């Protein structure tokens, strides 16, 4: 009895050979061009990671890395640990903050390749196709460059997927499989240590084990894997329990918001965002492949189903942020690579789109306005702004700047404020161990005013990209303020 995929006639060795020859067309030259293009994109990705300034969310996670603990209000601990390792090796630089993510993305590509080859061993180069599809998506090419929890989430899900392929192969062959199942559980637990959405992937896998064909629930391996996942995730649960379940309630509470009158808008935004970030051709291939995979055991549908249902339900109350959908991507890319043809066209068009985006990031060849240029809007001018704020504080005769914007406080702390003390009033700081609360008699209150305008006489300054204004901030001298010291 087969516990894994049972390729249909249309995906057998002969058919796959014909499809491979037809798809390659130009033989080795065509394949080499595709892989050469992917290597070029990876090199450009490295250049972007080195040159792109740190964005506010990355600075926020960098602050976490200076206060290591098992959980935080927004996410579990993994990204903080990764940044701590990277900055230990390379210093408090954008490359140091992103270093582990760059290594992790390479490991994710390797594990996705190996999982695809083991699930579909009949000679269609599914592993190569999966890696090529991943490499040309805007979400991977741009979204996984910043150091965010999505990077370790994706890497550990690919590890879990590869381990699962080994477990199912061993089950088919009648070989011992418990080691593969435990490794799968550990990978899933580490993914949940990165981002809570990994639990939805685990729910899908549990559904496949309990209700899929083959009676896997009778085997010891899946249960050992589940125990392994819980043990690895246990520190995050303990931290939540000690802090009133703050992290789980914050993330889980979003699902129960209710604004059905805007559901159509949120659903369109979700679909349009994923079409753009996967690139349209890749997105269509992945969705078509996922639907076709139902004939071969339904594993990929099980892995995607719970998260997809949760996201669709969430559109009844609020928008689904584009990066939340990362939990679906390993299975989606595998489905697109295994069950769809015309991958070469998708790779070429996606690669061209990504090349244009990299060119814009590195050269700004399009004269976009500040609100249309995300690189400038998020990353430009922070160092100069920190210096300007320090000078304004000295002129005002105060030594403290206060803001209630956690991202703004974080990115200014990364730049360094000299002798000026930075206080944050956001409730997030109460969950960071080692943060001290301070009261001051007078301070400058800093607030993001986006693009203005401000009323006449308002004390303000612009953050600039060179000489071009990017963002407007107001300053106000206030008395008797308190907050957490950001450092």
From TrEMBL:
One Pfam match, by short name?
PMT_2
Keywords recorded for this protein, A-Z: Cell membrane, Glycosyltransferase, Membrane, Transferase, Transmembrane, Transmembrane helix
Where does this polypeptide localize?
Cell membrane
Q: Where is the sequence biased in composition, kind Low complexity?
A: 1-17
Q: Does the keyword Ribosomal protein apply?
A: no
Q: Does the keyword Transmembrane apply?
A: yes
Region of interest called Disordered, as start-end residue ranges on this chain:
1-27
Q: What is its main location?
A: membrane
Indicate what this protein is called per its UniProt record. Answer: Glycosyltransferase RgtA/B/C/D-like domain-containing protein
Q: What is the lineage of its organism?
A: Bacteria, Pseudomonadati, Pseudomonadota, Alphaproteobacteria, Acetobacterales
